[in-house]
Amino acid sequence: MDFRELTYITAIARAGNISRAAEELYIAQPSLSHFLQQIEHQYGIPFFHRVRGRYLPTDAGMAYLAAAKEILDRKNALDIQLARLQDPDSGSLRVGFSPMRAATLLPLVLPAFRQKFSHVKLVLREAVADVLNEELGRGELDLCFFAMSKIDPTFQYQVLREEEILVALSPHHPAAAQAKPLENDKFSFLPLESLAGITFLLLTSQHRLGRHGRAALRRHLPDAEVLTLGNLQTVTELASQGYGAIFLYDSLLSTMSLEGRLIGYCFEEKRLTTSYAAVSLKSAPPPPCADVFIELVRRALN
After folding, report:
1. At 143, phi and psi to the nearest 5?
2. Coil, helix or strand for 157?
3. Which of 71-85, 98-112, 178-192, 249-263 has the lowest mean pLDDT?
4. What backbone phi and psi angles, to 5 degrees, belong to 229?
5. How many degrees, rounded to 5, is the angle at CA 36 between CA 70 and CA 32?
6. Where are the alpha helices (DSSP H) in the chain?
7. What CA–CA distance (Å, rounded) separates 196 from 175?
8. How far apart are CA 1 and CA 284, in angstroms?
9. pLDDT band at 89; cut points 50, 70, 90
10. Residues linked to residue 169 through DSSP beta bridges, in sequence order
11. 3-state DSSP call for residue 189?
């Protein structure tokens, strides 16, 4: 078994067709067909069912492909690591952000990073935190930024900021008058029970902020009227117009320039917080330029 064999069999499975796989690999179709026949003869078992011109993996093929992916992923990670050791300031940096954080943090981070590392190819990925978590685990990203939930032992974490989860209202909303100032605290206290009858604008459950909001309502206002939306900009705009209440991370009040348009309140005696972190794989550390990127994100958050 060699890397060429792994690459060829994987390409056939991905294309589902010998002709398309051969085009992808820049080899002649008869050569690839002959190669597959030799490999199947060598192992004494077919890797693909031939169904109307399509190549569908057999059980043996599925087992082979799972092992092939793991081996090729490890080789790719090694190639990247060796290239970085040759020239730690070259190459690429693949970074993942949630769409919400990308919109608020990247304009503050990218200009300064580009000025310092103009030769580094920056590849950005926007997706919800759960998807980023999976892609990082597969080695498809070097670095991700998201609110921590459960700890994965294959990752290393740098906590950049402890985020408080607040309920937020327009300063002109009648319910804002019920808030009670707290001594030596920047946020007043507004129990969710006092917001009965108000519409809560929640992000979908794909967003961790949406899940936090739903959990808070289950604890305090299980019968609250909820309007679910997928875009943070939309819910903040509606809330600033007095349409209802939203849940926010406290840093978003400044990074989204919401001061004066929304006021955030703590709503539980035991403050609801989460840790916003830079996350990477222990087995494939990001290149040295990632340290600068992380520090720029830290400054933007604070």
Report:
1. -155, 140
2. strand
3. 71-85
4. -135, 160
5. 100
6. 3-15, 18-25, 29-43, 59-86, 99-116, 129-137, 208-220, 232-240, 252-255, 289-301
7. 10
8. 25
9. low
10. 263
11. strand
Give the total residue count for the chain.
302
**Residue 99 clears pLDDT 90, i.e. is over it:** no
* Plot region of 197 (φ>0 → left; ψ -120 to 50 → alpha; else → beta): left
Name the residue type at position 139: G
pTM, full prediction: 0.64
Average pLDDT over residues 243-266: 92
Q: How far apart are CA 154 and CA 110, in angstroms?
A: 28
Contact status, residue 162 vs residue 277, Cβ threshold 8 Å: no
Tell me: pLDDT of 173 over 60: yes
pLDDT, one tens digit per residue, over 123-161 is 999 998 889 999 999 889 999 998 887 788 999 999 999
- For residues 138 and 132, what is the distance between their CA atoms, to the nearest angstrom? 10
- Taking the mean position of all CA atoms in its chain, how far away is CA 16? 30
